[in-house]
Design brief:
2 helices, globular, RelE/ParE_toxin_dom_sf, alpha+beta, 5-stranded mixed beta sheet
């Protein structure tokens, strides 16, 4: 079982835009399956430079920036935002 933590910024975005956490959890579930080698349709990419330890999940106009810790089976969601504001 994976532990998922949300930053205050990501919680605020979900609340302001009335996006259910279940939608985000579904994307994270697909991401884990992709890392395990399954063929799933998800746009995930390893980030570089200051975001070196993070992955970006893209779904439409929304970007999710998350850190996956496979040793502890935990995910930290740092940013959920529209594509223009996610990387600031």
């Amino acid at each position: 079982m994976w532990r998922i933590d949300f930053s205050a910024r990501s919680e605020k975005f979900l609340k302001q835009n009335r996006i259910p956490k279940d939608d985000i959890l579904e994307l994270l579930s697909l991401s884990i399956k992709k890392f395990q080698g399954e063929k799933v349709n998800i746009d995930i990419k390893k980030m570089k430079e200051k975001w070196d330890e993070f992955h970006r999940i893209r779904k439409g106009e929304i970007r999710i920036i998350a850190k996956f810790n496979f040793d502890n089976s935990s995910i930290f969601i740092d940013v959920i935002d529209w594509r223009g504001g996610a990387y600031k």
